[in-house]
Task: inverse folding
């Protein structure tokens, strides 16, 4: 009888099977651990087990405290299930074409973790509602948060707990950040956009984008046909929710600004593409939440243009701050969400209001949206047909950006660094092109122009790593630069790298490679990695073309160090020409040739004058000595002038009569 009284006193909805749903979802999360993607990772197993246990403990506390557990089930919202269908199709298409070298499809492999996020966010939503003493409105709301968020940021396995924090931030932003709009309380921000902005800000401040898949997600989205696929999926959203003006205005703003930028600067705003695929994804499927966007035509047009221009502003600001510009697509949405009511008020007042009124009342909303879709489709098809979205692009070339740097065009150095960096890590790029890009990053490190001692040390170390990576991928330029970098800067990634570079340069020298012959000869002359032998070094120097300044100086040095080993008269003319052109090192060698009478007539006055010029030119061995010494003091490698680093992308330079070492 007593149990019947208790049953009668309990709320009817508390006896509903749905009240156990959060616990069931938490258990479903635990089941995910049995999937290979999870159980093969200790970090994922621990994270999901702990989060699942936390949800179960939370449920138990509420049950023990006899908190009301009312559930108001709401049928799926059209906006949510249409967006989810579009996003799932995109995941399937992109996921199929994005395949690692080992055959793994990362998006498909990630699906158990996306499922775990669904379980978590729905369970969290229910438990949070009950904790606050209200009914759980069981709806489709968490679905677009999870799907939209995972299009842009995943955390690596060992940091995956922050993935749950990110989707939670989106849900709590929807819960707490609200305002009165059109006579009712509603959320201000696009939930997924808010969570992504929070995560991006933390990652930028901490400098830890490396703990996420944000970069691969931003670049691998550019699979074949992706622009057409995203456009068609966007049409579905535009048809049902009349957000076409937003996407149209955003695209036009980006395209027009990029065209003006290229015309004015001679380089490309988005480096190697007319419009990044990730940015196109943002304007088509991220900013188009009808609940957090304007209701008026004018408001939507300004909102869309604001996204396009906001993306470009964020892109530039992030680049100037040294932060990853891949987050540029995430910042405009939350900021524009704050302007929604102001934009609608603006669109309903004065002259603008009259224009907007005529625009909206001229035809039915359905016809009006169809017209807007037709306009946007016409623009897109025209651009698509003319190759605007094609992967081939003038900026998709290291040679283009190196030439732009040589011509000192706006942001050319930044463009070169970004493009070379993307080429180096892009798995779709051929191995030889990757190697050349790594080598170019090493060359860039040594031409930074920063003179601070600590910065120079960092640059030298970075260059050693880049050159070694290039050599490891089979780049002969990389091998040569590994050796040159050690000869002149005593920096290398490992002794093994240096040994491989010495061996490869010897092979290349024997095959007729002039630069390799010079560098290996220098190694033999100075005893770096091999036994020092002046006559053997001379043999390699003689493989190089006559007239090359660095070889001329090397022959002079060997001839002065080992009298009789080489007839210095053969290089007296080019050495004198280099000295007359102001080369301090050449002045130093020619001074000793005149001092000793080797290869030229003995002339003490001429020798002293040349030595003084070498001192005034800043050549350290001459600066350290007050006068010519009786015995030729050979300079150390660090005091010699190194040749330019080897590169697959040479820029036209050099003076007349100078021979380039290839």
Result:
């Amino acid at each position: 009888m007593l149990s019947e009284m208790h049953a009668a006193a309990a709320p009817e909805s508390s006896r509903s099977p749905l009240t156990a749903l959060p616990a069931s979802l938490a258990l479903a999360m635990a089941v995910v651990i049995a999937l290979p993607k999870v159980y093969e990772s200790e970090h994922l197993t621990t994270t999901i087990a702990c989060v699942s246990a936390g949800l179960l403990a939370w449920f138990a506390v509420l049950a023990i405290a006899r908190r009301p557990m009312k559930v108001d089930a709401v049928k799926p919202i059209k906006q949510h299930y249409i967006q989810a269908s579009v996003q799932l199709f995109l995941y399937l298409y992109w996921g199929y074409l994005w395949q690692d070298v080992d055959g793994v499809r990362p998006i498909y492999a990630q699906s158990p973790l996306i499922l775990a996020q669904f379980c978590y966010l729905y369970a969290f939503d229910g438990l949070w509602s009950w904790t606050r003493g209200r009914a759980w409105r069981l709806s489709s709301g968490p679905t677009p948060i999870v799907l939209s968020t995972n299009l842009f940021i995943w955390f690596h396995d060992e940091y995956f707990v922050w993935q749950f924090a990110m989707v939670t931030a989106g849900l709590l932003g929807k819960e707490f950040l609200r305002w009165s709009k059109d006579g009712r309380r509603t959320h201000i921000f696009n939930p997924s956009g808010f969570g992504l902005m929070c995560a991006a800000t933390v990652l930028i401040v901490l400098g830890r984008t490396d703990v996420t898949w944000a970069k691969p997600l931003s670049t691998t989205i550019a699979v074949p046909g992706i622009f057409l696929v995203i456009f068609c999926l966007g049409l579905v959203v535009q048809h049902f929710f009349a957000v076409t003006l937003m996407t149209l205005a955003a695209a036009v703003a980006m395209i027009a600004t990029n065209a003006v930028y290229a015309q004015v600067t001679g380089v490309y705003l988005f480096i190697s593409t007319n419009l990044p695929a990730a940015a196109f994804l943002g304007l088509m499927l991220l900013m188009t939440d009808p609940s957090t966007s304007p209701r008026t035509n004018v408001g939507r047009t300004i909102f869309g243009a604001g996204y396009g221009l906001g993306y470009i502003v964020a892109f530039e600001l992030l680049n100037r701050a040294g932060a990853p510009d891949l987050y540029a697509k995430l910042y405009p949405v939350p900021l524009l969400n704050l302007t929604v009511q102001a934009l609608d008020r603006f669109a309903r007042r004065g002259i603008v209001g009259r224009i907007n009124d005529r625009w909206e009342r001229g035809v039915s909303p359905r016809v009006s949206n169809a017209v807007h879709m037709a306009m946007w489709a016409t623009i897109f098809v025209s651009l698509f047909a003319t190759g605007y979205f094609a992967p081939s692009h003038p900026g998709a070339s290291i040679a283009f950006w190196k030439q732009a740097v040589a011509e000192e065009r706006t942001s050319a150095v930044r463009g070169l660094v970004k493009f070379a960096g993307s080429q180096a890590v892009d798995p779709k790029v051929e191995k030889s092109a990757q190697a050349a890009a790594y080598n170019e990053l090493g060359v860039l490190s040594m031409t930074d122009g920063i003179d601070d001692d600590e910065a120079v040390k960092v640059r030298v170390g970075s260059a050693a790593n880049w050159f070694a990576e290039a050599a490891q991928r089979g780049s002969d330029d990389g091998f040569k630069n590994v050796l040159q970098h050690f000869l002149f800067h005593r920096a290398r990634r490992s002794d093994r790298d240096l040994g491989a570079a010495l061996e490869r340069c010897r092979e290349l020298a024997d095959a007729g490679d002039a630069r390799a012959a010079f560098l290996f000869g220098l190694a033999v002359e100075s005893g770096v990695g091999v036994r020092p032998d002046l006559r053997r070094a001379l043999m390699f120097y003689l493989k190089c073309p006559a007239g090359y300044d660095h070889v001329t100086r090397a022959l002079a040095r060997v001839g002065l160090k080992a009298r009789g080993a080489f007839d210095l008269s053969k290089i007296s003319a080019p050495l004198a020409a280099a000295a007359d052109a102001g080369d301090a090192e050449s002045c130093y060698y020619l001074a000793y040739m005149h001092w000793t009478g080797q290869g030229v007539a003995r002339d003490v006055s001429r020798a002293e004058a040349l030595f003084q010029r070498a001192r005034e030119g800043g050549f350290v061995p001459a600066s350290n000595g007050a006068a010519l010494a009786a015995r030729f003091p050979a300079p150390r490698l660090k005091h010699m002038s190194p040749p330019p680093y080897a590169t697959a992308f040479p820029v036209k330079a050099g003076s007349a009569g100078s021979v380039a070492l290839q």
In short: Confidence is low (pLDDT under 50) at residues 1-15, 654-659. Residues 221-396 form one domain.
